[in-house]
Amino acid sequence: MGSNKNWSNKELDLLKHNWEKKPKNQIIKLFPNRSYRAIKFKANRLGFKKKVIFKIKKINMTPTKKAYLAGFIDGEGCISAHFQTEEHRKRPRIGLTIVNTNKTVIEQIAKDLNCSIFSYLPNDYSGKKRHFKRCYRIRIMNLSILLPFLKAIKLYSIVKKKQIELAIKLMKIRGNTYRGATSSKEEVELVKKVQSLNHKGEIK
In which order are the strands placed within the sheet that holds 89-100? Predict the structure, then answer.
């Protein structure tokens, strides 16, 4: 029997209650007359999400280090959220960017979080000859690092606390992965709130 036949109510109910929690091999057994590709396509079209389990990086930091990094990010960091369209699905993306001209400080943060550093010279669009200091940037979008790190510094943050809380909530809804179905209404609202905070400072 082909996998293009219409889905029965019984199949849809079975998919709804098993897609998120059961692994691939068990899902295939539940739908012997359909390919896994067809099953996955149907689940995504219906907005069913499968949480991807992966090893979260362990953040070993003293309270003093957490407080220092929270303060540094309050002043020099940006917690961003936007949408990325892929395969006709609009999914949320969360990131943390830290920029500073002090190479030593950025190198230490990169070492603590096991991430890379990019360096660049700022552009000057005024047409005047100016000498700018080289900037060093860290960009973190790996959720296995970002989620535990934001959880670790949330208590100590002041300026970026709301963005951190919204980002954590967004990552939990998404299931700690950028894959899966298109954004839900709740995810869309969370992304808009993060963007509003970054643009205006406060949500009214």
Answer: 77-86, 89-100, 135-140, 118-120
Across the chain, the runs of DSSP E, i.e. the strands, are: 77-86, 89-100, 118-120, 135-140
What CATH number should be reported for the domain holding residue 70?
Answer: 3.10.28.10
Distances (CA, A) of 89 to 39, 81, 96: 17, 16, 23
Query: What is the rounded CA–CA span in Å between residue 188 and residue 93?
Result: 11
Helices (H) and strands (E) in the chain, counts: 8, 4
Q: How confident is the model at residue 2 (pLDDT cuts 50, 70, 90)?
A: very low
Q: What is the pLDDT of residues 116-125, one digit of tens each?
A: 899 888 765 5
CA distance 202 to 193: 9
- Is 54 within the bounds of a domain? no
